[in-house]
Specification:
Length: about 375
Protein backbone atom coordinates (compact mmCIF):
# COMPACT_ATOMS: atom_id res chain seq x y z
CA UNK A 1 0.00 0.00 0.00
CA UNK A 2 1.47 3.36 -1.01
CA UNK A 3 1.24 6.56 1.00
CA UNK A 4 -2.34 7.29 -0.01
CA UNK A 5 -3.43 7.07 3.63
CA UNK A 6 -5.07 10.49 3.79
CA UNK A 7 -4.93 10.60 6.71
CA UNK A 8 20.87 13.47 14.19
CA UNK A 9 24.87 15.74 15.45
CA UNK A 10 24.63 15.01 19.17
CA UNK A 11 24.51 17.95 21.61
CA UNK A 12 26.26 17.67 24.93
CA UNK A 13 23.13 18.14 27.01
CA UNK A 14 21.19 15.63 24.90
CA UNK A 15 23.41 12.63 25.61
CA UNK A 16 21.58 9.99 27.62
CA UNK A 17 21.78 6.24 27.88
CA UNK A 18 18.48 4.38 28.13
CA UNK A 19 16.68 1.28 26.96
CA UNK A 20 14.88 1.32 23.63
CA UNK A 21 11.45 -0.22 24.09
CA UNK A 22 11.82 -3.93 24.77
CA UNK A 23 15.09 -4.33 22.90
CA UNK A 24 17.11 -4.26 26.08
CA UNK A 25 20.06 -2.51 24.42
CA UNK A 26 21.70 0.76 25.38
CA UNK A 27 20.81 3.48 22.87
CA UNK A 28 22.02 7.02 22.39
CA UNK A 29 19.27 9.58 22.76
CA UNK A 30 19.76 12.26 20.16
CA UNK A 31 18.03 15.62 19.82
CA UNK A 32 15.29 14.07 17.71
CA UNK A 33 12.46 16.57 17.08
CA UNK A 34 9.69 15.02 19.21
CA UNK A 35 11.90 13.50 21.87
CA UNK A 36 10.33 15.47 24.73
CA UNK A 37 6.86 16.10 23.27
CA UNK A 38 3.86 14.95 25.31
CA UNK A 39 1.86 12.01 24.03
CA UNK A 40 -1.22 13.22 22.17
CA UNK A 41 -3.56 12.57 19.27
CA UNK A 42 -1.04 14.46 17.12
CA UNK A 43 1.85 12.15 18.00
CA UNK A 44 3.29 9.96 15.26
CA UNK A 45 1.53 6.63 15.58
CA UNK A 46 4.82 4.80 16.01
CA UNK A 47 5.71 6.86 19.10
CA UNK A 48 2.40 5.93 20.73
CA UNK A 49 2.78 2.24 19.92
CA UNK A 50 6.30 2.18 21.37
CA UNK A 51 4.81 3.00 24.80
CA UNK A 52 2.92 0.39 26.80
CA UNK A 53 1.44 3.16 28.93
CA UNK A 54 0.12 5.05 25.89
CA UNK A 55 -1.36 1.87 24.42
CA UNK A 56 -3.09 1.19 27.73
CA UNK A 57 -4.71 4.64 27.62
CA UNK A 58 -5.96 3.99 24.08
CA UNK A 59 -7.39 0.64 25.16
CA UNK A 60 -9.21 2.28 28.08
CA UNK A 61 -10.90 4.74 25.74
CA UNK A 62 -11.55 2.43 22.77
CA UNK A 63 -12.25 -1.08 24.05
CA UNK A 64 -8.87 -2.49 23.11
CA UNK A 65 -8.40 -0.32 20.05
CA UNK A 66 -4.60 -0.35 20.12
CA UNK A 67 -4.59 -4.03 19.16
CA UNK A 68 -6.99 -3.35 16.27
CA UNK A 69 -4.65 -1.01 14.41
CA UNK A 70 -3.81 -2.75 11.11
CA UNK A 71 -0.37 -4.29 10.85
CA UNK A 72 0.42 -2.29 7.72
CA UNK A 73 0.62 0.91 9.79
CA UNK A 74 1.47 -0.55 13.21
CA UNK A 75 5.16 -1.32 12.77
CA UNK A 76 7.45 0.06 15.46
CA UNK A 77 10.80 -0.30 13.71
CA UNK A 78 11.79 2.01 10.87
CA UNK A 79 10.95 2.09 8.11
CA UNK A 80 7.31 2.04 9.18
CA UNK A 81 4.14 3.65 7.93
CA UNK A 82 3.45 4.47 11.57
CA UNK A 83 6.09 7.21 11.35
CA UNK A 84 4.09 9.21 8.80
CA UNK A 85 0.59 9.10 10.27
CA UNK A 86 -0.73 10.51 13.52
CA UNK A 87 -2.87 8.74 16.08
CA UNK A 88 -5.71 11.15 15.25
CA UNK A 89 -5.63 10.11 11.59
CA UNK A 90 -6.00 6.44 12.59
CA UNK A 91 -9.40 7.33 14.07
CA UNK A 92 -10.34 9.85 11.36
CA UNK A 93 -9.71 7.28 8.63
CA UNK A 94 -11.77 4.62 10.41
CA UNK A 95 -8.99 2.10 11.06
CA UNK A 96 -10.16 2.03 14.68
CA UNK A 97 -13.58 3.16 15.87
CA UNK A 98 -13.33 6.73 17.08
CA UNK A 99 -13.95 7.10 20.84
CA UNK A 100 -16.96 9.15 21.86
CA UNK A 101 -14.77 11.64 23.71
CA UNK A 102 -11.65 12.40 21.70
CA UNK A 103 -10.65 15.36 23.92
CA UNK A 104 -10.69 13.05 26.95
CA UNK A 105 -8.39 10.59 25.19
CA UNK A 106 -6.06 13.40 24.21
CA UNK A 107 -5.99 14.74 27.77
CA UNK A 108 -5.26 11.29 29.19
CA UNK A 109 -2.37 10.81 26.78
CA UNK A 110 -0.93 14.24 27.58
CA UNK A 111 -1.03 13.41 31.29
CA UNK A 112 1.40 10.51 30.82
CA UNK A 113 5.00 11.15 31.83
CA UNK A 114 7.55 10.99 29.00
CA UNK A 115 10.18 8.66 30.41
CA UNK A 116 13.84 8.13 29.50
CA UNK A 117 12.79 4.90 27.80
CA UNK A 118 10.19 6.80 25.74
CA UNK A 119 12.84 9.30 24.64
CA UNK A 120 15.23 6.54 23.65
CA UNK A 121 12.53 4.70 21.71
CA UNK A 122 11.48 7.83 19.82
CA UNK A 123 15.05 8.69 18.85
CA UNK A 124 16.17 5.19 17.88
CA UNK A 125 15.12 5.66 14.24
CA UNK A 126 17.38 8.72 13.92
CA UNK A 127 21.14 8.58 13.52
CA UNK A 128 24.23 10.73 13.82
CA UNK A 129 26.50 8.57 11.69
CA UNK A 130 28.71 10.79 9.56
CA UNK A 131 29.78 9.08 6.33
CA UNK A 132 33.46 8.94 5.44
CA UNK A 133 33.88 10.74 2.11
CA UNK A 134 37.01 10.68 0.00
CA UNK A 135 38.40 13.86 -1.51
CA UNK A 136 36.00 15.24 -4.11
CA UNK A 137 37.40 16.55 -7.41
CA UNK A 138 37.46 20.29 -7.98
CA UNK A 139 35.63 21.96 -10.83
CA UNK A 140 32.77 19.45 -11.04
CA UNK A 141 29.25 19.64 -9.61
CA UNK A 142 29.23 17.74 -6.32
CA UNK A 143 26.03 15.83 -5.61
CA UNK A 144 25.01 14.23 -2.30
CA UNK A 145 22.31 11.60 -2.88
CA UNK A 146 20.42 11.22 0.39
CA UNK A 147 18.41 8.02 0.86
CA UNK A 148 17.43 7.71 4.52
CA UNK A 149 13.83 6.53 5.02
CA UNK A 150 11.93 6.18 8.30
CA UNK A 151 8.40 5.99 6.87
CA UNK A 152 7.20 4.33 3.68
CA UNK A 153 9.94 2.63 1.67
CA UNK A 154 9.49 1.33 -1.87
CA UNK A 155 12.78 -0.31 -2.79
CA UNK A 156 12.14 -0.59 -6.55
CA UNK A 157 11.62 3.16 -6.94
CA UNK A 158 14.49 4.02 -4.59
CA UNK A 159 16.89 1.72 -6.42
CA UNK A 160 15.81 2.88 -9.88
CA UNK A 161 16.23 6.53 -8.92
CA UNK A 162 19.67 5.88 -7.45
CA UNK A 163 20.78 4.05 -10.61
CA UNK A 164 19.46 6.89 -12.76
CA UNK A 165 21.36 9.51 -10.71
CA UNK A 166 24.54 7.45 -10.85
CA UNK A 167 24.21 7.22 -14.64
CA UNK A 168 23.65 11.00 -14.87
CA UNK A 169 26.77 11.59 -12.81
CA UNK A 170 28.82 9.32 -15.05
CA UNK A 171 27.56 11.04 -18.22
CA UNK A 172 28.18 14.53 -16.91
CA UNK A 173 31.31 14.06 -14.86
CA UNK A 174 29.57 14.93 -11.60
CA UNK A 175 31.04 13.83 -8.30
CA UNK A 176 28.23 11.87 -6.63
CA UNK A 177 28.19 10.40 -3.13
CA UNK A 178 25.26 8.28 -1.94
CA UNK A 179 24.37 7.82 1.74
CA UNK A 180 21.45 6.76 3.92
CA UNK A 181 23.02 8.34 7.00
CA UNK A 182 21.42 11.52 8.34
CA UNK A 183 24.73 12.36 10.00
CA UNK A 184 25.69 13.67 6.56
CA UNK A 185 23.53 16.70 7.37
CA UNK A 186 26.41 18.38 9.15
CA UNK A 187 28.20 21.58 8.11
CA UNK A 188 31.51 19.75 7.67
CA UNK A 189 29.88 17.42 5.13
CA UNK A 190 27.39 19.72 3.45
CA UNK A 191 29.97 22.39 2.64
CA UNK A 192 31.64 19.86 0.34
CA UNK A 193 28.57 19.58 -1.89
CA UNK A 194 26.65 21.82 -4.26
CA UNK A 195 23.31 20.01 -4.14
CA UNK A 196 21.55 17.41 -1.99
CA UNK A 197 19.11 15.09 -3.78
CA UNK A 198 16.42 13.49 -1.59
CA UNK A 199 15.57 10.12 -3.10
CA UNK A 200 11.96 9.12 -2.32
CA UNK A 201 12.55 9.87 1.35
CA UNK A 202 9.74 9.39 3.84
CA UNK A 203 9.29 10.12 7.51
CA UNK A 204 10.88 12.60 9.88
CA UNK A 205 14.60 12.05 9.26
CA UNK A 206 16.75 14.75 10.80
CA UNK A 207 17.54 15.70 14.37
CA UNK A 208 17.10 19.32 15.36
CA UNK A 209 20.83 19.95 14.91
CA UNK A 210 20.75 18.31 11.47
CA UNK A 211 17.69 20.33 10.49
CA UNK A 212 19.53 23.54 11.30
CA UNK A 213 22.58 22.46 9.31
CA UNK A 214 20.54 21.47 6.26
CA UNK A 215 18.42 24.61 6.34
CA UNK A 216 21.54 26.78 6.63
CA UNK A 217 23.07 24.94 3.69
CA UNK A 218 20.05 25.68 1.51
CA UNK A 219 19.45 29.25 2.60
CA UNK A 220 23.16 29.99 2.28
CA UNK A 221 23.23 29.05 -1.40
CA UNK A 222 23.04 25.26 -1.62
CA UNK A 223 20.77 23.26 -3.88
CA UNK A 224 17.97 20.78 -3.22
CA UNK A 225 16.24 18.30 -5.52
CA UNK A 226 13.35 16.24 -4.13
CA UNK A 227 12.10 13.18 -5.97
CA UNK A 228 8.52 11.82 -5.68
CA UNK A 229 8.17 10.38 -2.17
CA UNK A 230 10.31 13.18 -0.74
CA UNK A 231 7.04 15.15 -0.59
CA UNK A 232 4.51 12.35 -0.28
CA UNK A 233 3.89 11.83 3.44
CA UNK A 234 0.37 12.12 4.92
CA UNK A 235 1.80 13.92 7.96
CA UNK A 236 4.84 16.15 8.35
CA UNK A 237 6.53 17.18 11.58
CA UNK A 238 8.86 19.82 10.11
CA UNK A 239 6.88 22.76 8.76
CA UNK A 240 9.85 24.48 7.07
CA UNK A 241 10.51 21.43 4.93
CA UNK A 242 6.90 20.97 3.81
CA UNK A 243 5.79 24.60 3.53
CA UNK A 244 8.95 26.44 2.46
CA UNK A 245 11.45 24.06 0.87
CA UNK A 246 8.74 22.05 -0.96
CA UNK A 247 5.90 24.55 -0.73
CA UNK A 248 2.94 22.15 -1.03
CA UNK A 249 1.46 19.40 1.13
CA UNK A 250 0.55 15.98 -0.24
CA UNK A 251 -3.08 14.87 0.19
CA UNK A 252 -3.13 11.59 -1.75
CA UNK A 253 -3.00 9.79 -5.06
CA UNK A 254 -5.46 7.63 -7.02
CA UNK A 255 -5.93 4.01 -6.03
CA UNK A 256 -8.50 2.78 -8.59
CA UNK A 257 -6.26 2.38 -10.47
CA UNK A 258 -3.12 3.50 -8.69
CA UNK A 259 -1.05 3.88 -11.87
CA UNK A 260 -2.53 5.71 -14.84
CA UNK A 261 -1.51 7.29 -18.12
CA UNK A 262 -1.66 11.07 -17.89
CA UNK A 263 -0.76 14.02 -20.08
CA UNK A 264 1.95 16.37 -18.80
CA UNK A 265 2.28 19.99 -19.91
CA UNK A 266 5.54 21.91 -19.55
CA UNK A 267 5.80 25.65 -19.11
CA UNK A 268 8.76 27.81 -20.16
CA UNK A 269 11.02 28.33 -17.17
CA UNK A 270 13.90 30.72 -16.61
CA UNK A 271 15.93 28.00 -14.91
CA UNK A 272 16.38 26.09 -18.18
CA UNK A 273 15.17 22.88 -16.52
CA UNK A 274 12.62 22.48 -19.33
CA UNK A 275 15.21 22.95 -22.10
CA UNK A 276 14.80 20.54 -25.01
CA UNK A 277 11.70 18.88 -23.61
CA UNK A 278 8.42 18.66 -25.53
CA UNK A 279 5.66 21.01 -24.43
CA UNK A 280 3.50 17.97 -23.68
CA UNK A 281 4.01 14.23 -23.33
CA UNK A 282 2.35 11.23 -21.69
CA UNK A 283 3.59 9.05 -18.85
CA UNK A 284 2.24 6.27 -16.66
CA UNK A 285 2.81 6.79 -12.95
CA UNK A 286 1.22 7.37 -9.55
CA UNK A 287 -0.04 10.95 -9.63
CA UNK A 288 0.17 13.01 -6.48
CA UNK A 289 -2.31 15.72 -5.50
CA UNK A 290 -1.58 18.56 -3.09
CA UNK A 291 -3.69 20.64 -0.75
CA UNK A 292 -3.01 23.71 -2.87
CA UNK A 293 -0.85 24.73 -5.78
CA UNK A 294 2.78 25.56 -4.90
CA UNK A 295 2.26 28.77 -6.88
CA UNK A 296 0.60 30.04 -3.70
CA UNK A 297 3.97 29.82 -1.93
CA UNK A 298 5.93 31.44 -4.76
CA UNK A 299 7.02 28.44 -6.82
CA UNK A 300 7.58 28.57 -10.57
CA UNK A 301 5.67 25.61 -12.02
CA UNK A 302 7.56 23.65 -14.66
CA UNK A 303 5.26 20.68 -15.27
CA UNK A 304 1.50 20.23 -14.74
CA UNK A 305 -1.01 17.41 -15.15
CA UNK A 306 -4.00 17.54 -17.44
CA UNK A 307 -6.68 16.11 -15.17
CA UNK A 308 -8.86 15.38 -18.22
CA UNK A 309 -6.34 12.71 -19.23
CA UNK A 310 -6.68 10.56 -16.06
CA UNK A 311 -9.02 10.01 -13.09
CA UNK A 312 -7.87 11.73 -9.90
CA UNK A 313 -10.77 10.30 -7.89
CA UNK A 314 -10.81 10.48 -4.09
CA UNK A 315 -8.18 9.70 -1.51
CA UNK A 316 -8.11 6.22 0.01
CA UNK A 317 -10.14 5.44 3.15
CA UNK A 318 -12.55 8.29 2.63
CA UNK A 319 -9.88 10.86 1.95
CA UNK A 320 -10.61 14.18 0.22
CA UNK A 321 -11.25 14.57 -3.51
CA UNK A 322 -7.90 14.65 -5.31
CA UNK A 323 -8.80 16.96 -8.18
CA UNK A 324 -6.83 20.20 -8.21
CA UNK A 325 -8.74 21.47 -11.23
CA UNK A 326 -7.02 23.34 -14.03
CA UNK A 327 -3.87 23.99 -11.98
CA UNK A 328 -2.29 20.67 -10.99
CA UNK A 329 1.50 21.14 -10.77
CA UNK A 330 3.79 18.11 -10.48
CA UNK A 331 7.23 19.72 -10.85
CA UNK A 332 8.37 23.16 -9.79
CA UNK A 333 11.33 25.27 -8.73
CA UNK A 334 11.78 28.00 -6.16
CA UNK A 335 14.38 30.15 -4.46
CA UNK A 336 14.87 29.54 -0.73
CA UNK A 337 17.07 32.26 0.69
CA UNK A 338 20.10 32.21 -1.62
CA UNK A 339 19.50 28.54 -2.40
CA UNK A 340 17.73 26.64 -5.17
CA UNK A 341 14.96 24.08 -4.70
CA UNK A 342 13.36 21.75 -7.25
CA UNK A 343 10.72 19.10 -6.62
CA UNK A 344 9.14 16.56 -8.97
CA UNK A 345 6.23 14.33 -7.97
CA UNK A 346 7.05 11.91 -10.80
CA UNK A 347 8.83 8.72 -9.88
CA UNK A 348 6.95 5.94 -8.11
CA UNK A 349 7.21 3.41 -10.93
CA UNK A 350 10.79 2.25 -11.58
CA UNK A 351 10.07 2.52 -15.30
CA UNK A 352 9.84 6.31 -15.03
CA UNK A 353 13.60 6.45 -14.47
CA UNK A 354 14.13 5.01 -17.94
CA UNK A 355 11.74 7.50 -19.57
CA UNK A 356 13.83 9.91 -21.65
CA UNK A 357 11.71 12.97 -20.83
CA UNK A 358 11.70 12.30 -17.10
CA UNK A 359 15.43 11.60 -17.03
CA UNK A 360 16.15 14.82 -18.89
CA UNK A 361 13.92 16.78 -16.53
CA UNK A 362 15.74 15.41 -13.47
CA UNK A 363 19.17 15.78 -15.01
CA UNK A 364 18.63 19.43 -15.85
CA UNK A 365 17.07 20.03 -12.44
CA UNK A 366 20.11 18.62 -10.64
CA UNK A 367 22.44 20.71 -12.81
CA UNK A 368 20.45 23.90 -12.09
CA UNK A 369 20.17 23.19 -8.35
CA UNK A 370 23.92 22.50 -8.17
CA UNK A 371 25.40 25.40 -10.12
CA UNK A 372 22.55 27.56 -11.44
CA UNK A 373 21.40 30.96 -10.36
CA UNK A 374 18.18 31.71 -8.56
CA UNK A 375 16.09 34.80 -9.04
CA UNK A 376 12.57 35.58 -7.86
CA UNK A 377 10.06 33.80 -10.07
CA UNK A 378 12.29 30.81 -10.90
Amino acid sequence: MKKSFALWRLTGCALMIALWGNAGAATRVLDCPLRDAPFSLESPLVDVLLSDAAKAVINQHTSGGAAKIPAMIAGTRAPTFGAIVTLRSVFDQGFVTKPADMPALDAALRALPVTAADRAARCARFDDDRPVIDRLPDGKPRVLLFGKINGFRDDPSVNAARAALEAMAARNGWALVSTEKAGAMHPSVLRRFDVVVWNNNSGDLLTLTQRRAFRSFIEGGGGFVGIHGAAGDPAYFWDWYADTLIGARFIGHPMEPQFQDARIYLSPNATGIDHGLPREFKMNDEWYSFARSPRATGAAVIASLDERSYRPGNGAYGGPPLSMGDDHPIAWSRCVGRGRSFYSAIGHRPETYADANHVRLLEQAVRWAAVGSCQKGQ
